Amino acid sequence: MTEYLLAACGAVFLSVIVSFIIPQGKLGKTITAVLRLACIVILISPLADLFNFSFGEYEDYIDYGFICEVYSENQSDTLEELLYSEFETETDCTVTVVYSDGFCVESVEVCLLNGNTELAEKIYEYLQSNDYINITVYEQTDGI
User: Fold this and answer.
1) Per the confidence metrics, is the pTM higher than 0.85?
2) Buried b (16+ CB within 10 A) or exposed e, 70-82
Protein backbone atom coordinates (compact mmCIF):
# COMPACT_ATOMS: atom_id res chain seq x y z
CA MET A 1 0.00 0.00 0.00
CA THR A 2 2.86 2.35 0.77
CA GLU A 3 4.27 1.77 -2.71
CA TYR A 4 0.95 2.81 -4.21
CA LEU A 5 0.78 5.97 -2.08
CA LEU A 6 4.37 6.89 -2.94
CA ALA A 7 3.70 6.37 -6.66
CA ALA A 8 0.52 8.46 -6.53
CA CYS A 9 2.18 11.29 -4.59
CA GLY A 10 5.19 11.19 -6.88
CA ALA A 11 3.03 11.41 -10.01
CA VAL A 12 1.03 14.33 -8.65
CA PHE A 13 4.19 16.12 -7.48
CA LEU A 14 5.88 15.54 -10.84
CA SER A 15 2.88 16.90 -12.76
CA VAL A 16 2.80 20.05 -10.57
CA ILE A 17 6.54 20.67 -11.05
CA VAL A 18 6.32 20.10 -14.81
CA SER A 19 3.31 22.42 -15.12
CA PHE A 20 5.45 25.25 -13.66
CA ILE A 21 8.37 24.55 -16.00
CA ILE A 22 6.69 23.95 -19.37
CA PRO A 23 5.91 26.89 -21.63
CA GLN A 24 2.36 28.01 -22.37
CA GLY A 25 0.83 27.08 -25.75
CA LYS A 26 -0.09 23.92 -27.63
CA LEU A 27 2.95 21.98 -26.41
CA GLY A 28 2.20 22.92 -22.81
CA LYS A 29 -1.41 21.77 -23.10
CA THR A 30 -0.33 18.47 -24.63
CA ILE A 31 2.25 17.79 -21.93
CA THR A 32 -0.24 18.73 -19.20
CA ALA A 33 -2.85 16.40 -20.68
CA VAL A 34 -0.38 13.51 -20.84
CA LEU A 35 0.71 14.07 -17.23
CA ARG A 36 -2.92 14.21 -16.06
CA LEU A 37 -3.62 10.99 -17.89
CA ALA A 38 -0.59 9.36 -16.25
CA CYS A 39 -1.81 10.51 -12.82
CA ILE A 40 -5.27 9.06 -13.46
CA VAL A 41 -3.79 5.73 -14.57
CA ILE A 42 -1.62 5.55 -11.44
CA LEU A 43 -4.55 6.46 -9.18
CA ILE A 44 -6.89 3.82 -10.60
CA SER A 45 -4.25 1.08 -10.93
CA PRO A 46 -5.48 -0.77 -7.79
CA LEU A 47 -8.79 -1.34 -9.56
CA ALA A 48 -6.99 -3.50 -12.12
CA ASP A 49 -6.33 -6.06 -9.37
CA LEU A 50 -10.08 -6.49 -8.92
CA PHE A 51 -10.38 -7.73 -12.51
CA ASN A 52 -7.40 -10.06 -12.46
CA PHE A 53 -8.70 -13.35 -13.89
CA SER A 54 -6.63 -16.49 -14.04
CA PHE A 55 -7.24 -19.14 -16.70
CA GLY A 56 -6.16 -21.86 -14.29
CA GLU A 57 -9.26 -21.33 -12.15
CA TYR A 58 -11.52 -22.44 -15.00
CA GLU A 59 -9.37 -25.29 -16.30
CA ASP A 60 -11.69 -27.93 -14.82
CA TYR A 61 -14.73 -26.53 -16.64
CA ILE A 62 -13.30 -26.82 -20.17
CA ASP A 63 -14.54 -29.81 -22.16
CA TYR A 64 -11.52 -30.64 -24.29
CA GLY A 65 -13.23 -33.75 -25.65
CA PHE A 66 -16.02 -31.69 -27.19
CA ILE A 67 -13.58 -29.12 -28.54
CA CYS A 68 -11.46 -31.88 -30.12
CA GLU A 69 -14.57 -33.43 -31.66
CA VAL A 70 -15.70 -30.16 -33.24
CA TYR A 71 -12.17 -29.32 -34.34
CA SER A 72 -11.77 -32.81 -35.88
CA GLU A 73 -15.03 -32.47 -37.79
CA ASN A 74 -14.05 -29.04 -39.10
CA GLN A 75 -10.58 -30.21 -40.13
CA SER A 76 -12.04 -33.30 -41.83
CA ASP A 77 -14.46 -31.20 -43.90
CA THR A 78 -11.70 -28.76 -44.81
CA LEU A 79 -9.38 -31.59 -45.88
CA GLU A 80 -12.12 -33.08 -48.08
CA GLU A 81 -12.55 -29.72 -49.82
CA LEU A 82 -8.78 -29.32 -50.20
CA LEU A 83 -8.34 -32.77 -51.72
CA TYR A 84 -11.27 -32.20 -54.05
CA SER A 85 -9.77 -28.93 -55.31
CA GLU A 86 -6.31 -30.49 -55.62
CA PHE A 87 -7.13 -33.93 -57.10
CA GLU A 88 -10.77 -33.53 -58.24
CA THR A 89 -11.90 -36.68 -56.50
CA GLU A 90 -14.50 -37.39 -53.84
CA THR A 91 -13.09 -38.44 -50.48
CA ASP A 92 -14.28 -39.16 -46.98
CA CYS A 93 -11.68 -37.80 -44.57
CA THR A 94 -11.31 -38.32 -40.85
CA VAL A 95 -8.84 -36.06 -39.08
CA THR A 96 -8.38 -36.97 -35.41
CA VAL A 97 -7.46 -34.00 -33.22
CA VAL A 98 -6.39 -34.56 -29.60
CA TYR A 99 -5.47 -32.25 -26.73
CA SER A 100 -2.16 -32.78 -25.01
CA ASP A 101 -0.57 -29.50 -23.89
CA GLY A 102 -2.23 -27.99 -26.96
CA PHE A 103 -4.31 -29.22 -29.86
CA CYS A 104 -2.58 -31.45 -32.41
CA VAL A 105 -3.53 -33.83 -35.20
CA GLU A 106 -3.09 -37.43 -34.12
CA SER A 107 -4.00 -39.22 -37.35
CA VAL A 108 -5.53 -38.78 -40.81
CA GLU A 109 -7.66 -41.28 -42.72
CA VAL A 110 -8.67 -40.69 -46.32
CA CYS A 111 -11.15 -42.98 -48.05
CA LEU A 112 -11.20 -42.57 -51.83
CA LEU A 113 -14.81 -42.94 -52.91
CA ASN A 114 -14.00 -43.35 -56.60
CA GLY A 115 -10.22 -43.45 -56.76
CA ASN A 116 -7.48 -45.77 -57.84
CA THR A 117 -4.20 -46.96 -56.35
CA GLU A 118 -2.16 -44.41 -58.27
CA LEU A 119 -4.29 -41.56 -56.91
CA ALA A 120 -4.05 -42.99 -53.39
CA GLU A 121 -0.27 -42.82 -53.57
CA LYS A 122 -0.37 -39.21 -54.82
CA ILE A 123 -2.69 -38.19 -51.99
CA TYR A 124 -0.47 -39.96 -49.45
CA GLU A 125 2.61 -38.10 -50.74
CA TYR A 126 0.67 -34.82 -50.76
CA LEU A 127 -0.40 -35.24 -47.13
CA GLN A 128 3.09 -36.28 -46.13
CA SER A 129 4.57 -33.19 -47.79
CA ASN A 130 2.11 -31.05 -45.77
CA ASP A 131 3.44 -32.52 -42.49
CA TYR A 132 0.49 -34.75 -41.64
CA ILE A 133 1.33 -37.78 -39.50
CA ASN A 134 -0.17 -41.28 -39.14
CA ILE A 135 -1.67 -41.13 -42.63
CA THR A 136 -3.93 -43.88 -43.98
CA VAL A 137 -5.21 -43.63 -47.55
CA TYR A 138 -7.43 -46.41 -48.87
CA GLU A 139 -10.00 -47.05 -51.57
CA GLN A 140 -13.64 -47.71 -50.82
CA THR A 141 -14.52 -51.36 -51.16
CA ASP A 142 -18.02 -52.67 -51.69
CA GLY A 143 -18.91 -54.83 -48.69
CA ILE A 144 -20.93 -58.01 -48.93
Assistant:
1) no
2) ebbeebbeebbee
